[in-house]
Amino acid sequence: MPTEPRKRFSLVELDRSDVVVTMLVAAAVVVGAAVVMVRRVAELLGDGPVPVRVELTGDEVVRAPLGPGGADVTATAGSVVVDVPHLAGLARAAALVEAVAMPTAFAVTAVCLALFCRRVVRGLAFTAATTRLVLVACLATLVAWLVQVGASVVVGGAARSALGGGDPGSGTVFVTAFPLGLLLVAIALGAVAGAMRVGERLQRDTEGLV
């Protein structure tokens, strides 16, 4: 007696146009990440001052030309980009690692999610290969977050030393940033991968009953 072909189950209904759009977005992310990486590496390896973003504590009031006709308006700065004349060897190395790792992680995540969508359209959502794509995206995002935090510590300290640090009496002090965005994305991707593992097991059990 001929057996029926195995049917794959997917909770998400996508069509091929969705996959094409996802692939185009992933390609744009990869190209953009490459451009950002090249520009940042050129800044770090150049002879001029290096732009570094630093976080500030206290309410630092600045004047910015944001009013009508370029008029100055009062604003409160939580972070600023400063030109550091020279970054020490360790700080420059940390900045280079961040400049390469962050765009690479974004590109890897975009490609994995695009391939994930393609597999969903093909009815291969709850398979080991699809789950691995989500896990790779999760690990890439987590590594990017760790690199970002580590580079913030090293580069922020070097910027403080190069610029003489903040004046404690003025209430303006450089602090290390602790970004949570990438960490939350990594946690969400890890949760999705865990749910897909459960879906794999349920699909195998269901197929065994047919």
Automatic annotation (TrEMBL):
<keyword id="KW-1133">Transmembrane helix</keyword>
<feature type="transmembrane region" description="Helical">
    <location>
        <begin position="171"/>
        <end position="195"/>
    </location>
</feature>
<keyword id="KW-0472">Membrane</keyword>
<keyword id="KW-0812">Transmembrane</keyword>
<feature type="transmembrane region" description="Helical">
    <location>
        <begin position="133"/>
        <end position="159"/>
    </location>
</feature>
<protein>
    <recommendedName>
        <fullName>DUF2975 domain-containing protein</fullName>
    </recommendedName>
</protein>
<feature type="transmembrane region" description="Helical">
    <location>
        <begin position="20"/>
        <end position="42"/>
    </location>
</feature>
<feature type="transmembrane region" description="Helical">
    <location>
        <begin position="100"/>
        <end position="121"/>
    </location>
</feature>
